[in-house]
Amino acid sequence: MKSNNLESAQQANQSAEDEVTEPELNRFHRNPEHEVSLVSCNNIMFRASRHRLMAVSLFFKGLLEIPPPASNNPESDTEPIHLDFYSSTINNYLDLINVSQPFKPTLSIQSASSLLRLLEFTLTENYIKSVRQWLEKAECKRPLELLIVASERNDVELARLAIGRFTIAHIQAHLKTNNFPEEKEGLDKFKDYLRQLRPSFCLGVLFPMLSATGPWCFQTGIPVIQDWSTIAKNFYPVESGIAAQDARMDR
């Protein structure tokens, strides 16, 4: 009986191994002459130039500077490198580093933020500044969305840029177009927006709002404040007593 149970367990383990899905090869970044395979967290594989990765990234340089064993099959030269980033982000990364002149990507704020995280993770220093600058310019049109990204990154400087651009038109547009329930009143929607921020950032916005000296009020539940630039200057994430809550958001 024990022998049968052991055999059944071994067969189950083998079946589970057989069911592991092979990564799907990206439609564009698939050159078989490229020596490195990158696999995204949603199981998409990219072929990338070992030389190019080492040239732009200290992370990949440290990982790949020891040459792999010689082989007639480039695809077997190295083990795939699994990255905890989605395929869209890795695709944007490879697009960015494989041109002779850096370009400004046309990306959403969230996509640009994910690309910046990958650049920082891989220590791709020469591209971090340009992507961050592009992200900072987004504060002109979508400052509320940019503040959420700043909160995710725990980036105080980026948060101040975003808050300084707040207007009632931006607030109304964001609450109208970002899946806030229609039946909710304006104030409830604004509170829902603030709940998307890490606790220290939420209080960092509220405290200078409540102490603002200029005239302001809630109009249909939306804060009408003339001088958001002063609130931006006075924005300091409130750490006391809520560091543990922030830590949970960083996991």
From TrEMBL:
Superkingdom to which the source organism belongs: Eukaryota
Bias (Polar residues) ranges: 1-15
Residues covered by region (Disordered): 1-23
The protein, known as: BTB domain-containing protein
Taxonomic source organism: Kwoniella dendrophila CBS 6074
